[in-house]
Amino acid sequence: MVVAQRKYSYVEEEIKQPQPKKSNKKKPKQKVKIKANHKVQMIFGIIMIGSLCIAILLGYARISELKYRIYGLNKEIHQLEIHIENLKVQVDGVKRSDLIEKKAREELGMQYPDKSQMVFIKLDGNNMVDGLNTEEKAQIDEAKNKKDLIDKIKGMLHTALSLLD
To answer: Which spans are transmembrane here (predicted)?
Structure first.
């Protein structure tokens, strides 16, 4: 019990001690003066941070715009590829000779020519004169004569120039 009494008495002593009273008076705070140099540095820092934030936002806006354009172009490419495939299918259908022959016979009323309707042209070298009528033959002969005359004149001029050299 002795220990308990001491403790009790110690507790009483603490309670009995007068506590310092806090005054309701507020102490005037001292104003911290910031030098002009520090103010300029803080303003400059705030402006730099703000401009950096704006630059980052503008960068993200540009990236978003480019992604949107890429998406639109990819969509257009896909549509064009589908259109190309459709056109290839149509071309393959038009190229088939059996379909061409069928359309020619049914829709256009065409038929294969008879032996009597065929004309064979005999060609000798580069002359195609045999299959032409007389007026066309005359025009071709006249053109050949003009060409021969021009060639003769060129040859004479060439020899005359070679003599002068």
So the answer is: 42-61
